[in-house]
Structures are given as C-alpha cells and as structure tokens.
Amino acid sequence: MRMLSDLLLFDAHCDTVTRLSLNGLKSGNFNQEPHNSIGILFQLAASGRRRIMQAFALCMHPFWIPGKLPSQVSPEDLVSVYFTFLEQAGDHARHCTSRSEAKQAWTDGKIACFLTIEGLGEAAGTSIERIIRLYELGVRWAGPVWNHNNSIAAGVDPDQEDGGLTAFGKTAVDEMERLGMGIDVSHMSDKSFWDCLERIRKRGLLLASHSNARALCGHRRNLTDAQIRAVSAAGGVIGITFHRPFLNNHSANASISDILAHIDHIAAVGGIQCVGIGSDFDGTDELACGIRDASDLPLLVEQLLQHNYSEEDIRLILGGNWLRIFSECRM
Ligand SMILES: [Zn+2]
C-alpha cells in the first residue's frame, strides 16, 4: 500500500478523552479502547511516521453516554485526564498549542496533540473569564454547543427551538475571536451557524471539525452547500467524518466510497482548500464499512490516488488544510 512520504496526518476530532474519563484511565492500556485511534497512531508513530497531529475534544455534555458520565465533570477534570493520558503515553505524544510547538514535536519524533471542546456553553456557563481560562489551559478551538441548546447557542437537537446565538453567545464569540480560538460549527443549529458567520470578522476561525455534506446525506449534523461555501469563503476547513449515519441516507452500508463522495462534493462546492479529516474514530460504534481505525488511512490515500487526486491535493486533505487553520488561531 502506498503512503506518500512525509504525509502529514491531521485528525480534527476524536473522543478519546471522554472515553478515558468514563473508564477512569483504569486500564492504562489505550490499545484496548474500542476503535482507539490514538493507540493506532502510536503504532504509526513507532513505525516511523513522523508527522501526526490529533485534536482531542473535551466533550462537556453530561448525557453523552446516558447515565455514564458524572454530571459534575468540570473541564479541568477532563484536561487533567488528557494530561495524565499524555504522561502515560510517554515518548509518543506531546501537548502543543502552536504550529511551532507541533513542528518541534515532529522533529522530536512525537505525535502533536492539542485540545478542543465540544460544548463550550457547558464548560464556560456565562463566564467570559472561563473562556479565557480554557484558552490558557490550551484549548485552541471550541464548538459552542454539542447537540442541545446551552448558554451560547442552539444545537442540532430537533426537539429544541432554534434561537441561534444567545445574547451571551454573541459576546462569547467575540471573545473567542479576540483570543484567536477557532469556532467549531459542527453540532450547531442552522441559525447558530449563520449567526456565528455574521459575527466573525477574522479569517480562518470558522471550522467544522466533524461534519459531512447534507446534499449527499440529509442528517442535520451535516452542512448544506450554502454552509460549505460560507465556511470556505471564511477561510475555514471541514473535517469529513467516518460515522456511518452522516455518510449515507441508508447508513447501514455506508463505506469508504461514501467518504470519497463527500470529499468530492465538498471539494467541488467549497474548493480543495476547505477539505480535511475529522474521523470520530472512537466517538462512534458505526464507522464506515472498510475503515476500522487510523491504520486504514492508507486505504483512503490509495482511493484518493485512484480518483485522480494529485499528491498536492491529498496532502491538503489529509492534513495541510488543518495545519493552515491551526496556524491562523493566535498562538
Ligand atoms: Zn461530535
């Protein structure tokens, strides 16, 4: 299997921290985690792959797995799980908050890791100071909402009213922009999305860490063509996600060819510069058929080559575009 030499692999979303906090880090053996993307990444790094970057989402929603996540988990608790995990990873991984730190990590043979949030409203409440504190803790982009409405914005939950950004949400978005914290629109309601877009002035801050194209799969977690164009025009990137229900309206048979179809579509609508990967490898039990974990990423590269994507385009999709975004956030 061919894999382009020195190809940067940048995955914009995983739920490893949430899984580890649910398990209390008890096993200490990350390879035993189902679909554990990071365990596989370690193997890739150990086999000599030099440039890997992984976003670790702190998912604040207490009902992410009903009844399992203690309701009083604070973002600091999850940050400390993340750092314990990195400590246990020893030689393999390093926390990074800037492009230069990531480059140094790669030079030193380590995976570059950084923090993001799903559900900034749950993490910060209505406190701007909390948002600043999270940035100081290393969070470099944040999704204002998970699925449910919170202090900042409305999420994609169809049973809740789509009021868009709240009054505090507008102030919160302004502060994120001031800090240079990326604003992740995955999980946002349509009105929240457009409210954010209207609010932001700085290029490259708007992103969708794990969402696909709604034109191909009608799930509301996916982006309409107008939204894809808007993210692209704002200098942002969209992470194609491998969760079957977001790939195909008949999700049971969604496969790697559907991943290709979403890449084709988003590239056609928004341009190649807005396409990235946001796998959700360990956030789902319904991965696309034919792709088990990060060790199957070479299959995707192979498919892209067969679909006549140039080496340059593949480098952008697998990581180059995300690295551009990561650099745009003020670090
Ligand atoms: Zn998610």
Q: What's the CATH H-level superfamily name?
A: Metal-dependent hydrolases
Query: Tell me, what is the CATH class?
Result: Alpha Beta
| Sheet/helix structural class | alpha/beta
Q: Determine Rg (CA atoms, Å).
A: 18 Å
Task: Give me the number of helical elements.
Answer: 12
**What is the count of structural domains?**
1
Which molecules are bound in this entry?
zinc ion
Percent of residues in β-strands: 5-15%
SSE arrangement, N to C: EHHEHEHEHHEHEHEHEHEHH
Largest sheet: 7 strands, parallel
- Architecture per CATH nomenclature, i.e. the level-2 architecture: Alpha-Beta Barrel
The percent of residues in helical segments reads 25-40%
Low-confidence spans: none
How far from one another are the termini?
37 Å
The CATH topology assignment is TIM Barrel
**Number of separate strands:** 9
Dominant shape = globular
Task: Describe this structure as you would to a colleague.
- This protein is an alpha/beta fold and 331 residues long.
- The mean pLDDT is 87.
- The chain is 40% helix and 11% strand.
- It has helices spanning 16-23, 37-46, 75-89, 99-107, 120-124, 128-136, 167-179, 190-199, 225-233, 256-270, 297-306, 311-328, and strands at residues 9-11, 52-59, 93-95, 111-118, 139-143, 182-184, 206-207, 238-240, 275-277.
- Strand 6, helix 8 (190-199) and strand 7 form a beta-alpha-beta unit.
- It has one domain: Metal-dependent hydrolases (TIM Barrel), CATH 3.20.20.
- Zinc ion binds next to loops.
Layout of strands and helices, then pairs:
Blueprint: E1 9-11, H1 16-23, H2 37-46, E2 52-59, H3 75-89, E3 93-95, H4 99-107, E4 111-118, H5 120-124, H6 128-136, E5 139-143, H7 167-179, E6 182-184, H8 190-199, E7 206-207, H9 225-233, E8 238-240, H10 256-270, E9 275-277, H11 297-306, H12 311-328
Parallel strand pairs: 1-2, 2-4, 3-4, 4-5, 5-6, 6-7, 8-9
Bound molecules: zinc ion.
